[in-house]
Structures are given as structure tokens and as C-alpha cells.
Design brief:
The protein is an all-alpha fold. The chain contains 16 helices and no strands. Helix 7 packs antiparallel against helix 8 and helix 8 crosses helix 9. About 12% of the residues have low confidence. Keywords: TPR repeat. This is Flp pilus assembly protein TadD. It comes from [Roseibacterium] beibuensis.
Length: 284
């Protein structure tokens, strides 16, 4: 019997529609799976880099509850807790990450960072010692420098700071830390140079500006440095210089700097006003 060819196009059309319906349903089911939605949109990466820290903590905590075996969610929660200044809470999650077979050397570096933020210097040093020497990154050497600093191993600290600064295009933060290290050793001239270099990379880094004023004041120079600053920053730096002068027995210099700080600040500068009143009360 010869098949009726008139039915073949109809049959193909029906089978084609069935295949299309099947594919569409699979795509819809996949799209409705929250874990796949996260993967497809890179939401985790967005939460780690762009979201507010507490918002990221909430997101990753919820994601981890839904998928407790996902190391990337636990890693994200630990990182977000550190960003939210909750390093102590992050430690248990970093330990869980490191116990996973999929843990990375970078996880150990991030764990060491959280330990340092929590003041656990000895444990941080132990974790850094476990990282293979072939992993030469800015983050690793920055932490190595800080640990060496805490141990007062100055030559090692200088070497690590220098290496870290050379491994990033944005070395302002590590140069500022290096300068502060120099100040604690009493090398104020060396510290001044490093703070100036830090500011040259990041003119908005106020911490480096404040440290620079302190390094100069320690050398008896209370003039503000020639760096870019806002009016409010100028008032705050004058206040820093004033307090340094007073601590070093230069009372009249400190008094003049406090008065200038009060006049410079666009609003009421309560800290400077209180310092000046205390100074005047002592003179009575």
C-alpha cells in the first residue's frame, strides 16, 4: 500500500510543534530555576562588587540556605561579611571554604586578610606560610608586609611592601601603609616621601594626607603640604598639625593652627573649638 503523501507535511508539522513545545518548556523551567538565573546573569559577581555590603550579606546568606553545598555562595558570604566590617563573622565561613576540595589559594589569602582584620596575626602568618611561593600577587605581598610589620621585621616588611607596590597599578594604599610603618620606626623623612607618592597615585586618599601632616609635624614642620585638598580637608589637616604641635610642646603654634582650622572650616568645627577651649583653660 502506497502511503498517502498528503499527510506527511501535516505529520512533520505536528512533530515539529511538539519538539518546539518541549524545548520551550525546558527553557522556561531552566529560567525559573533561581540557581540558574543567578548563573546566567552573573548576579553573584554583581553583588560582590557593586552591591552595598549588607545587601550582599543578605543575598549570599539566602542563596547559601537554598544551596548549602555551593562553595561560591559560601565564599561570597565570607567576602561580603568582610566588606561589611564583620570580619569575625566571616572566619567560620572561610574555614568551611578551605575545607572544600574546590578551595583556591586565593581563598587562603582572603582568609588571612580576614584574620588580620580580626587581630589574629599569628594565625594569619600560618595561613600565609601555607600558600605556595609561586603565587605572587599584590594581595599576598601586601598581607606579608603587614605581618612582617607586626613582627617588627623591618627588612622583610620593606621588601614585601616594595614588591606589592610593583604588582598593582593602584599602589596608593600599600604606599600609605608602608609610610605608616616608617613613622612607627621613627623614619619620618622616609615616611613623608612615601605618603607623597601615595597621594600622587590617589589625590583623594585623605588618610595619606593626614599621615603626611603628622610625618612633617614630627620633623617640626607644621606647614600644610602642597597637595590637592578641599576646604574641609584643609581644616581637618590644620587640626591634625595643631594637635601634633601641642603634643611636642609648641603650644602657641598649636593655638594659632587651631584658630586657623576653625576659621577655615565651612561649618562649625566642634573638635577644633573644644581643643582650643581646653588649651585656653589650661593657660588661665
Amino acid at each position: 500500500m502506497v502511503p498517502d503523501l498528503r499527510f506527511i507535511p501535516v505529520l512533520c508539522a505536528v512533530l515539529g510543534l511538539a519538539a518546539c513545545d518541549s524545548t520551550t518548556n525546558a527553557d522556561v523551567d531552566r529560567a525559573l530555576d533561581p540557581m540558574n538565573v543567578i548563573d546566567d546573569t552573573n548576579l553573584s559577581d554583581i553583588m560582590l562588587t557593586a552591591a552595598a555590603p549588607e545587601e550582599a550579606v543578605t543575598y549570599f546568606r539566602g542563596a547559601l540556605e537554598n544551596a548549602p553545598d555551593r562553595i561560591d555562595f559560601r565564599r561570597g558570604l565570607a567576602s561580603s561579611l568582610v566588606r561589611a566590617n564583620r570580619a569575625a563573622e566571616s572566619l567560620v565561613h572561610w574555614r568551611a571554604v578551605l575545607e572544600d576540595d574546590a578551595a583556591l589559594d586565593q581563598d587562603r589569602i582572603d582568609y588571612a586578610d580576614a584574620l588580620i582584620r580580626n587581630g589574629d596575626w599569628d594565625e594569619a602568618e600560618e595561613q600565609l606560610d601555607l600558600i605556595p611561593p609561586t603565587m605572587e600577587t599584590y594581595e599576598r605581598y601586601r598581607l606579608e608586609a603587614m605581618v612582617a610589620d607586626s613582627n617588627q621585621e623591618w627588612e622583610r616588611a620593606d621588601s614585601f611592601y616594595e614588591t606589592a607596590a610593583g604588582l598593582t597599578t593602584r599602589p596608593a594604599s600599600v604606599l600609605n601603609n608602608w609610610g605608616y610603618s616608617m613613622m612607627t620606626r621613627g623614619d619620618f623623612a622616609g615616611a613623608e616621601e612615601l605618603f607623597m607618592e601615595a597621594i600622587s597615585y590617589d589625590p583623594d586618599l585623605f588618610t595619606a594626607k593626614n599621615n603626611l601632616v603628622m610625618a612633617r609635624a614630627a620633623q617640626g614642620n607644621y606647614n600644610l603640604p602642597l597637595v590637592r585638598m578641599t576646604q574641609i580637608e584643609r581644616a581637618q589637616l590644620l587640626h591634625t598639625a595643631a594637635l601634633a604641635a601641642i603634643r611636642q610642646g609648641q603650644t602657641e603654634t598649636g593655638r594659632a593652627l587651631l584658630a586657623e582650622a576653625i576659621d577655615t572650616h565651612p561649618q562649625h568645627f566642634d573638635a577644633a573649638v573644644r581643643a582650643l577651649r581646653a588649651l585656653d583653660a589650661e593657660a588661665i
